[in-house]
Design a protein that fits this description.
343 residues, Quinone Oxidoreductase, Chain A, domain 1, Rossmann fold, 24% strand
Length: 343
């Protein structure tokens, strides 16, 4: 079979690899149809993924945003997992023994394994996975099915933020994750303000029924957001950028007793006045991967919103073009919303 293999930092090639063997008990073999590329793929490919985020170990078949078809089912699998069924893959496996696992937070497992990071991922013609990572999904477009994974991060973020109906929520960054947060927060009944540097991204947020603001400066954005969410400022703010100015703006604009939720990844240091945390007694929350139940919630969000989510797919490439697709996505950030390989 063919696989796009990241052989070392900055080098990917499409190679022949052995087919997976027949599935064992509680194991499923799938044929990936569509694989989304995201920022963590960029960092892995460049050899820049931090050890805390999983590191970059080569050679590796990347790809953790996967829409696929089942091609073989091992003994003992759930009845719903049948050959030909379209599925989305929850990419995480937890150890079940560390402290996070012991307190019911396996999504932050100290020894987790992620498809496409620690084990080979979706950029290949066949992939063997445990049945618990396989979720049937009703989606006509496999590229839309692959969006269950980024939507799952949004579900985790909105759950972690305890977003309530009627609350005013600011989302800094209208890339794919920010857009998914807008969608999930709107489904929860929140009123959403999306902020980004690019008008074309804000147009997508508007289609998701979010209000929008073009980023000009941190001071201007903070002032606008606090006016928009009078009298106290927004009770919930998400940063989906990882950019230090946006992170500082999030902490400054959020209301007293509010929730500031960091979703965007970055290796940057961020400074802000420490007194903001104690004076406003805000909850400063981080978001990692989702749990199994949240992935199921994400699948349901995708099934309810295929047309809206389909607008996030800006470019499609075949598996043979995977190296070019990854470089294109990394080199053209203003053009790209979501690159999908396959589909």
């Amino acid at each position: 079979m063919r696989a796009a293999v990241t052989e070392r930092a900055g080098a990917m090639a499409v190679l022949d690899r052995p087919e997976p063997s027949e599935p064992e008990a509680h194991e499923v073999v799938v044929a990936p149809e569509a694989v989304g590329i995201c920022g963590s793929d960029y960092h892995f490919f460049a050899g820049e993924l931090s050890e805390e985020a999983g590191g970059s170990e080569f050679p590796r078949v990347q790809g953790h945003e996967i829409g696929a078809r089942i091609v073989a089912v091992g003994p003992g699998c759930r009845r719903e997992l049948t050959v030909g069924t379209r599925v989305a893959l929850w990419p995480l496996q937890a150890c079940g023994e560390c402290y996070p696992c012991s307190v019911g937070r396996p999504n932050t497992c100290d020894a987790f394994e992620l498809i496409g990071i620690h084990v080979d991922g979706g950029l290949q013609e066949r992939l063997s996975v445990p049945e618990e990572q396989v979720f049937p999904i009703r989606a006509d477009d496999p590229a839309v099915a692959s969006l269950a994974e980024p939507v799952s991060i949004a579900v985790r973020a909105v759950n972690r933020a305890r977003v309530q109906r009627g609350e005013r929520v600011v989302v800094l960054g209208a890339g794919p994750i920010g857009q998914c947060i807008c969608l999930v927060a709107r489904e929860r009944g929140a009123r959403v303000l999306a902020v980004d540097l690019q008008e074309n991204r804000l147009e997508v947020s508007q289609a998701m029924d979010a209000e929008t603001l073009l980023w000009t400066s941190a001071d201007d954005v903070v002032a606008f957001a606090r006016r928009w969410a009078r009298p106290a400022g927004p009770p919930v703010v998400f940063d989906a950028t990882g950019a230090p100015p946006a992170v500082r703006a999030m902490v400054e604009m959020v209301a007293s007793a509010g929730r500031a939720v960091q979703v965007g990844m970055s290796g940057d240091d961020v400074t802000f006045r420490l007194g903001v945390l104690t004076e406003k007694e805000i909850d400063l929350l981080g978001v990692s991967c989702c749990g199994a139940a949240e992935f199921g919630q994400a699948v349901a969000v995708v099934e309810r919103n295929p047309e809206l989510l389909g607008r996030l797919v800006s470019h499609r490439f075949g598996l043979a073009q995977a190296p070019e697709a990854l470089r294109f996505a990394m080199e053209n950030p203003t053009e790209v919303m979501k690159v999908v390989i396959g589909g």
